[in-house]
Write a structure and sequence with these properties.
2 domains; eight-stranded parallel β-barrel; TIM Barrel
Length: 372
C-alpha cells in the first residue's frame, strides 16, 4: 500500500510541476510579447509624430506687411484728397499737405495677427442675466443661430474680409452693492467661464473676457484671469465706464481709464504672449465719452497686442455716428470697433438697427463689431 501511495504522490507532484512550468512559460511569453507590442506601438507613434502633416508645432509665415498696409488703408476709408486746379496768370499760394488721421502709424504685429485681415463679430453679455446682452439672453442653440445671421450679413456686405465669430463675456461685473471687500464688482466663477469656452469651441469662436473693475483696478483683476489668457482663443476687453477712481459706486457717473492703465494691460498681455509663444492678443477698450479715456496719445500698441478702441454708446443712428466721430475717429490709437444694441438703439419709434453697409461707410471702418 505504501508503494502505491508513494507512486500516486509522485504522479500528482509531477503533474503539478508540469502545469506550473506551463503557466510560468506562458507568462514569460505574454510579457515578452507585450513588451514587443508596446515597443512597436511606441515606434509607430514616434513615426507619426515626426511626420510634418501630423506635427502640431507649426512655424507661422512672417507677417505680410504689404497686405497689412493695404488693409489698413482700406479700413481708413479716407475721402479723396481735394484736387487743386491751377488758374492761369494767378500764382498759387502754398497748399497745405493733407494729413489723414488714419491709418495709424504703429508697430507691425507679430505673425498670426487676427487684425486687420479678419473682422470679428461678437455677441456680448453674461450667462447669469438675460438683460446684459445676447450672450445670456438666449439659450445656446438660439444664440448661435442669431449670431450666424449677423455673420452672414457681414460676409455679404464685405466679402473681401473674412469674419470670425466671438463671444464677449463679462467675467468681472460691476455692481451696485459693495460686496465683502467693498470693491463693487463680482468675479464670475470658473464654472461659468468654462461654459463660455465650451460654447466658443463648438463654433470655433474667439472669447473675450470683459472686466468691469468697479472700485478695484486692472492691476488686481487682470492677473486673476491669466490662466485663460494663456489659451490661444481668449482675448480681453476692459470697460472704463465702470472704473470708479473717485470712489463713487458704479452706475452713478461714467468712469475712466488713463493711458497708463491701458498700457499696463498691454504690457501684461505681452508678457503672457511671449512666455507662451502665442499669436497676438486683442485688447478691446470700450469708449463713448471724452473722459472715459485720458492721454490717448500715450497708448502704445505692441507687436504682441492689438488695441481696438470700441464705440460703446447707444441711441439713434445720428447720435452713434457723432459719438464715433468725436471720440474714436478724432483720437486714433490702432483699430476701431462699434457696438450695436438690439434694444437701446431702437427705442424710438421708427428707428432700426444700423446695418453692416451703414458701418462700412464710416471712416475708419470698424473691424470689431459687437452686438448686445
Amino acid at each position: 500500500m505504501n508503494d502505491k501511495s508513494d507512486s500516486k504522490k509522485r504522479s500528482i507532484l509531477g503533474g503539478a510541476c508540469f502545469w506550473l512550468f506551463v503557466i510560468f512559460f506562458s507568462l514569460v511569453l505574454f510579457f515578452a510579447a507585450s513588451e514587443l507590442f508596446s515597443v512597436k506601438i511606441s515606434n509607430e507613434m514616434e513615426n507619426l509624430a515626426t511626420k510634418p502633416e501630423n506635427n502640431k508645432i507649426s512655424v507661422l509665415p512672417p507677417l505680410d506687411t504689404a497686405t497689412y498696409d493695404k488693409k489698413l488703408n482700406e479700413l481708413a476709408n479716407n475721402p479723396p484728397d481735394p484736387i487743386v486746379y491751377e488758374t492761369v496768370n494767378v500764382p498759387l499760394s502754398p497748399q497745405p499737405k493733407i494729413a489723414h488721421l488714419w491709418p495709424v502709424k504703429t508697430v507691425y504685429p507679430n505673425a498670426g495677427a487676427i487684425l486687420p485681415f479678419n473682422r470679428i463679430v461678437a455677441y456680448y453679455g453674461n450667462l447669469y442675466s438675460k438683460n446684459m446682452g445676447a450672450l445670456g439672453q438666449y439659450d445656446e442653440e438660439e444664440m448661435f443661430r442669431r449670431l450666424d445671421v449677423e455673420i452672414k450679413k457681414w460676409k455679404t456686405a464685405d466679402p473681401a474680409t473674412p469674419v470670425i465669430p466671438a463671444l464677449h463675456y463679462i467675467a468681472v461685473v460691476a455692481q451696485g452693492s459693495a460686496g465683502e471687500d467693498k470693491k463693487y464688482r463680482a468675479r464670475m466663477p470658473d464654472s461659468e467661464i468654462a461654459k463660455v469656452l465650451k460654447m466658443a469651441e463648438k463654433i470655433d469662436a474667439l472669447v473675450f473676457l470683459d472686466i468691469q473693475v468697479g472700485l478695484s483696478d486692472l492691476r488686481t483683476e487682470v492677473p486673476l484671469l491669466e490662466k485663460y489668457f494663456k489659451m490661444p482663443r481668449v482675448h480681453l476687453g476692459i470697460d472704463p465706464e465702470f472704473s470708479m477712481k473717485n470712489g463713487i459706486s458704479p452706475g452713478k457717473i461714467v468712469g475712466t481709464f488713463d493711458a497708463s492703465d491701458i498700457n499696463f494691460t498691454v504690457n501684461y498681455l505681452t508678457k503672457i504672449v511671449k512666455e507662451n509663444n502665442l499669436t497676438p492678443k486683442i485688447l478691446v477698450v470700450h469708449r463713448y465719452t471724452q473722459k472715459m479715456v485720458t492721454n490717448y496719445k500715450e497708448i502704445k500698441p505692441l507687436p504682441e497686442v492689438q488695441v481696438v478702441m470700441h464705440m460703446d454708446g447707444w441711441g439713434e443712428r445720428a447720435k452713434k455716428i457723432n459719438t464715433y466721430k468725436q471720440f474714436i475717429f478724432k483720437e486714433p490709437v490702432q483699430f476701431t470697433g462699434f457696438k450695436l444694441f438690439y434694444k437701446n438703439d431702437t427705442l424710438t419709434d421708427g428707428t432700426v438697427l444700423m446695418t453692416p453697409n451703414d458701418l462700412l461707410k464710416l471712416s475708419p471702418k470698424p473691424i470689431y463689431i459687437q452686438y448686445q
